[in-house]
Design brief:
binds iron/sulfur cluster; five-stranded mixed barrel; single chain; binds FE3-S4 cluster; six-stranded parallel sheet; Rossmann fold; alpha/beta; 3 domains; OB fold (Dihydrolipoamide Acetyltransferase, E2P); about 475 residues; binds S-adenosyl-L-homocysteine; globular; 13 helices
């Protein structure tokens, strides 16, 4: 093992964090210019979304704006008059996919000369992507970024009037985009932004560059939005941020624990979830708030990224393996039956076999319910992209396979332990693969498939678990005897 005694406990931050400016953003008034309301009646839009839940939620906002303009949604690209790609920049293959798709749909323009194709979200925040679109994809009609998505109505208007690409990307946020209209499709679960941006600057990660500095919404505006959602029938609220447990640091009058308690006691709310929390600054106050607020679900997504202190240090994660394991112990002691999930990057530059084995060991020790696993992808402009990387891709792929094999085994064991138990399941709808079967989730965020009448959709029911697979549980509807997972 290559780490030293001073690795124990919180690490002194190795990479200097940039100076963070305090942001004081104006509130946005009048999202849509009055003369544009209904101006595109009869036209249809389609948004293809990549990346994290933040992007999924931004798509709901863009849909909200387009519907005010008069657009209807369509799932059929042949029928669409506007196709938007809401993109993710976090790994290179996500970017390649988008460029591939944009190229694939180009011929639709010959059939429908009125068709607008747009690229928005995180990719356009990169200068290199802007240049690539100008040079290689000049027939893309509009391009905008994460900080100015409220400009969509006027950019659409400009794109109809222009022969050239309308490209407007802001380097930083100027407005809090809290009060924009949203189209929420699902009806029972809703996302609510509590914080924009990220200040952590993990050395591999592009998000601080595409989303800007951390900005928290005020507690009252969040709680008001949640109350409105619950009043219109939503039962489960997931609050979103890149580091939700840093919530409020920039405001100074409330922290994430206060926020969880405030949302958790909104009259009529059934479930509260949050994503993503960072091991860094996961305080005892937050653990207590989760443990003591009944509506907050027993599931914590706690990305560890690596089990090796040497790698964690080079990633600038700000914690050690020992700190992380200690945190997991505290969480498990305070929140019985909590489900823990994680993100892991394999093949960070210079990761040795020894480092990787430490990750495998940590995975066994924590025993996660599931994990998202990625091969490191260098992102231009991030500090890690300048590190030498002698590890061949073949080795990285092989490590990823070993990691997934181990995690799948552990995930299945967790699921098998639930067989015979009766759990609370919030039914979301019909199963994607079989319309005769309903699909819902446990409080611990596990997917349960069950036979039940369609009236059960959007209801919380008690389900006995009969069978378990790596990704899903199979259950039977019962009426009593709930046990928490
Ligand atoms: N804010 C969240 C993560 C957002 S990005 C957090 O810190 O937990 C989602 C995941 O993508 C990260 O947790 C990380 O595992 C992965 N990721 C980010 N940058 C990456 C890169 N350059 N290569 C591979 N995976 C990456
Ligand atoms: Fe990226 Fe790190 Fe911020 Fe997460 S905390 S978004 S991994 S920089
Ligand atoms: Fe991707 Fe942007 Fe989210 S880079 S992970 S869509 S914040």
């Amino acid at each position: 093992m290559s780490h030293h005694i001073d690795d124990i406990g919180m690490l002194a931050v190795q990479v200097k964090r940039p100076v963070i400016e305090k942001t004081d953003l104006r509130a946005l008034t009048d999202a849509v210019r009055p003369d544009l309301v209904g101006a595109y009646k009869g036209k249809r839009y389609m948004i293809r979304t990549y990346g994290c839940q933040m992007n999924e939620h931004d798509t709901e906002v863009m849909a909200g704006l387009l519907e005010i303009l008069g657009y209807d949604s369509t799932e059929d690209e042949e029928l669409a008059d506007l196709i938007l790609f809401n993109t993710c920049a976090v790994r290179e293959n996500a970017e390649n996919k988008v460029f591939g798709e944009v190229g694939r749909i180009r011929p639709l323009k010959y059939r429908n000369p009125e068709l607008l194709i747009g690229v928005c979200g995180c990719m356009p925040q990169e200068k290199a992507v802007q240049a690539k679109i100008r040079e290689t994809y000049p027939w893309i009609d509009l391009v905008f970024g994460t900080h100015n998505l409220h400009r969509l109505p006027e950019l659409v208007e400009q794109a109809y009037a222009s022969q050239e690409t309308v490209m407007e990307v802001w380097d930083k946020a100027q407005f809090m985009l809290d009060d924009l209209p949203k189209v929420r499709k699902e009806g029972v679960r809703a996302w609510v932004n509590i914080q924009y941006g990220c200040n952590k600057f993990c050395t591999y990660c592009i998000v601080p560059y595409t989303r800007g500095r951390e900005r928290s919404r005020t507690l009252t505006s969040i709680v008001d939005e949640v109350k409105g959602l619950v009043a219109s029938g939503f039962k489960e609220i997931t609050v979103l941020g890149q580091n939700v447990n840093d919530y409020g640091i920039d405001l100074g009058n409330a922290d994430f624990a206060d926020l969880l308690r405030a949302i958790g006691r909104v009259e009529g709310i059934e479930r509260v979830r949050f994503t993503t929390s960072n091991p860094w600054n996961f305080t005892d106050r937050v653990i207590a708030a989760i443990a003591e607020t009944e509506t907050v679900c027993e599931h914590i997504h706690l990305p560890v990224q690596s089990g090796s202190n040497a790698v964690l240090r080079k990633m600038n994660r700000g914690y050690t393996r020992e700190y992380y394991l200690q945190l997991v112990k505290k969480i498990r002691a305070a929140i019985p039956n909590v489900a823990l999930t994680t993100d892991i990057i394999v093949g960070f530059p210079t990761e040795t076999e020894e480092d990787f084995l430490q990750t495998l060991q940590l995975i066994e020790e924590v025993s996660y319910d599931s994990a998202y696993t990625f091969i490191y992808s260098p992102r231009t402009g991030t500090p890690a992209a300048r590190l030498e990387d002698p590890v061949p891709l073949e080795v990285k792929k092989e490590r990823l396979n070993r990691l997934m094999e181990l995690q799948n085994k552990i995930s299945r064991l967790h699921n098998e332990q639930l067989i015979g138990k009766t759990l609370e399941v919030l039914i979301e709808g019909v199963s994607k693969t079989n319309p005769n079967v309903l699909s819902g989730r446990t409080r611990t965020n596990k997917i349960v498939l069950l036979d039940a009448p369609k009236e059960a959709i959007h209801q919380t029911v008690f389900t006995r678990i009969d069978a378990a697979q790596t990704w899903t549980l199979r259950g039977t509807l019962v009426t009593s005897d709930v046990e928490t997972a």
